[in-house]
Amino acid sequence: MPAPLPSLTLLLLTSDAARAERLIARLREIGLAARAMVTSRVDRLDEVLARRAFDIILWWSADGEVGQEAVVSSLSEGPAEIPLIIVTGAEASADDLATARRTGARDLVPGGKDEQLEWVIEREAADLLQRRRCRELGARLVRSERRARELVDRTGDAIAFVDADLHLYANHAYLRLLGYQAVEELQLVSFLDLVDPGQRVVVQDLLRAASRPDQSDPLEASARLYPPQAHGFEAHLSAAQSLHDGRQCLRLIVTPKTRATEPSPLTLTTGEPDIGAAGRSTLFSQIEARLGAERVVEAPFTLFFIHVLQHAGLVQDLGLARALELVDGLGSALQPMVAESGCVARVSDDGFAMIIDGIDEEAAEETAERIRATARLPGRAEEAARNEADCQLGYVMVQGRAAPAEEILNAAYRVAMDASTAPIGDSLAPRPPASLAARVKQETDEDDVQLAEKVAYALRQDQLKLVYQPIVSLMGDNHENYSVLVRLLDEEAGLLGANDFIGAAIRTGFVLDVDHWTIRSAIRILAEERRAGRNLRLFINLAEDTFRHPSIVPYICDCLRELDARGNWLAFQFQEQLVADNLGNLAKIVDELRHIKCRIAINRFGATQRPEMILEALPVDFVMLMPDYAYGLADDQAKQQRVLALANLAREFNVKSVVTGVEDAQTLTVLWTAGVDYVQGNFLQRPSPSLHIDP
User: Fold this and answer.
1) In b/e form, how buried is each residue of 360-371, taking b as 16+ CB within 10 angstroms?
2) For residue 278, which phi and psi values (nearest 5 degrees)?
3) How does pLDDT run across 421-461, given as a tens digit for each residue?
4) For a FRET experiment, which of 88, 620, 625, 686 has its CA 20 to 30 Å from that of 151?
5) How many CA atoms are closer than 13 Å to the CA of 151, on its beta-carbon side?
């Protein structure tokens, strides 16, 4: 059964309205749902084409009241994808053919040939339907490839895409397995070079067979791999045809055979815990086994990190062998605390990780207290009057959509090092904060409880609002850039700015929920505006508690996928001081954000003594200078020199500079002279709920 033809919007260039009405009536009789705009005002044709979207244009070129030159000029420069049909006189002349070439017409129909004209319109309508389907399928293919890439990046399986045995791309698990740090290191490496020379022919035959056009199912083989950065191992290989960035290639899955001898992921690890890399591998396998489709946690579990105190002192006092023996004994003491499906793994010289399934926050805290009270190094528990703990610990409760296993372990480790047991969840109850900004940089305020209640209420009742301030280019930019700011609707005090409540949100643990709301709301608005044809980019600031949370990048990916948006429409901002305090953790997060094409901005740039260290350590797209630099800039020579130096520094690293806090025209002149790329401030426009720049 043929697909129904689309509803058509026609533009009819003729002065004969009755002729147009007859044509529309005949089209409806043959099953084309058509409507038309009829005009002979060719002087306004450019405006009409810009304002309305038409499917087909019909032009009666023999109509003397329709100016031919004006029509040819407008249609020659107009949208090329709109099919044009020219209705000539009784016969098409040489001039008609020349006009058709100049305007790109799809057909010439002699006047009076009504049935032929109907057939041509019907043909163009069918072609229009096919083109729309192709565009839709192309967009769906792009979205599917993007989602497939996200799944590949999040899976624990080692997956690479190869073409003619050269690596095109590899996920983190593949890089970790073969001992590489970045994809770029692999892209010039032949997979066959990693294979035992005696088995290369077998692997080469596997790759060739999997590449044949008639081969749709995966093919498998075994080989021993010798990566230059890691130990050799026996591996099971699976190769199947795939696409990477629209390019035909092979998807290669590498599974070490040594995993077959490891314990089943959901059985108790008995005896002494695995140590070091083996322990981490066991732990990561246990975590991955608890994840369902798209890394959704099917049953919540809690990961504890137990850090042995004074490990270096033990080694110094007792010697390496005895110290290691004592720490091993602590692992044996931890083992009885896990249930049948849990595990204990020693992940470093002085650290253990422990998984316990199905416990709530209260039970997790009770378990943590029991570990602190009872977990002792062998031979030290009996010391007289000894009440101090031998370990400190932290834990994270994993539920919903999970981050990679490494990030979950990192989160538990950070909580342990912060001496905090704040669980990670979605509750709106106040949580003890773990970030440096919350514990050190923010002083306790007696109004925190009241403000926290307002924030929690606003989150539940959707009483947070977004406002936007334009970031205006001084050098020319085809994007409309806006900084996203949050306001809280307070029935008593009206709209509260971020400065009025964000400190309390940080100190009481609500800032993650506020940032989640901001990210989702901003992406929704951005997707709507992009669909309307606007070339927008939004800048969103991430608090320290937010970017330290292991699931923030998966949350951003979920929002982008659900709302059909793209990462390159967003720029995420990090405050310079917080970057300096979290450089190691942020490097991984920035890498993941850039992998989904998000832009990176450093906010309040120039606050530290050596800002160039951040530009050397992180791939950054924008630096946003502290507002203090803009205050009184026109009259302060020292500030001008500092701004010029920072703008030049950004230019050296191919980074765009933004000066915020611009309040007067004199400052704008100085910044333009200094070569600053963008400016932001109340002089240009105050924050507004509208994504438009006021004239």
Assistant:
1) ebeebeebbeeb
2) -65, -40
3) 333 333 333 344 444 444 433 444 556 677 777 887 888 77
4) 620
5) 12
pLDDT band (50, 70, 90) for residue 118: confident
Containing 374, the helix (H) or strand (E) segment is helix 361-374
Tell me what pLDDT residue 439 has. Answer: 40
Q: Token pair for residue 578?
A: 């917080």
The beta strands (E) that lie in 245-324 are given as: 247-256, 301-308
Q: What is the C-alpha separation between 657 and 562, in angstroms, rounded?
A: 32
Provide the 8-state DSSP code for 197. Answer: G
Q: Please answer whether residues 634 and 643 qualify as being in contact, where contact means their C-beta atoms are separated by less than 8 angstroms.
A: no
> What is the secondary structure of 102-117 as a DSSP string?
HHT-SEEE-TT-HHHH
CB 622 within 8 A of CB 654: no
Closest CA to 571 of 535, 542, 546, 607: 542
Please name every residue paired with 344 in a beta bridge, in sequence order, or none if there are none.
354
412: Cα separation from own chain's centroid = 23
E strands in 147-229:
158-163, 166-170, 219-225
Distance (Å, rounded) from C-alpha 289 to C-alpha 388? 36
570 near 540, Cβ under 8 Å?
A: yes
Residue 622 CB contacts under 8 Å (≥ 6 apart), including other chains: 539, 571, 599, 600, 601, 602, 655, 656, 657, 658, 678
Residues 6+ positions from 271 with CB-CB distance below 8 Å: none
Is the separation of the CB atoms in 367 and 118 below 8 Å? Answer: no
- C-alpha span between 505 and 686 (Å, rounded): 24
Which of 94-108, 567-581, 620-634 has the least mean pLDDT? 94-108
β-sheet bridge partners, residue 398: 301
- On whether the CB atoms of residues 624 and 602 are closer than 8 A, the answer is yes
Beta carbons within 10 angstroms of residue 510's beta carbon: 27
Q: Using CA atoms, how far apart are residues 337 and 326, in angstroms rounded to an integer?
A: 18
CA distances from 1 to 4, 5, 131, 216 (A): 9, 12, 19, 29
Residues with Cβ within 8 Å of residue 125, at least 6 apart in sequence: 5, 6, 8, 32, 55, 56
Sequence-distant (≥ 6) Cβ neighbours of residue 418 within 8 angstroms? 394, 434, 439
**In this model, does residue 208 exceed pLDDT 80?**
yes
Beta strands in 339-419 (DSSP E): 343-348, 351-357, 391-398
Torsional sign, CA 374, 376, 382, 385: negative
CA angle (317, 319, 323) in 5-degree steps: 90
- Band of pLDDT at residue 149, cut at 50, 70 and 90: confident
**What integer pLDDT is reported at residue 364 of this predicted model?**
82
In the block, residue with structure tokens 């030290």 = 380
Has residue 111 got a pLDDT over 90? no
The H or E element that residue 467 is part of is strand 464-473
Determine how many CB atoms are found less than 10 A away from the CB of residue 23: 23
Cα 378 to chain centroid distance, Å, stands at 47
CA–CA dist 644, 649 (Å, integer): 9
Instruction: List, in order, residues 6 or more apart from 41 with CB less than 8 Å away.
Output: none
Of 200, 203, 232, give the one whose Cα is nearest residue 219: 203
Q: Tell me how far the alpha carbon of residue 507 is from its chain's centroid.
A: 27
The alpha carbon dihedral of 475, 477, 482, 483 has a sign of: negative
Dist. CA 665–CA 682, nearest whole Å:
11
Q: What is the DSSP string of 607-652?
A: -SS-THHHHHHS--SEEEE-GGGTTTGGG-HHHHHHHHHHHHHHHH
Q: What is the DSSP letter of 264?
A: P
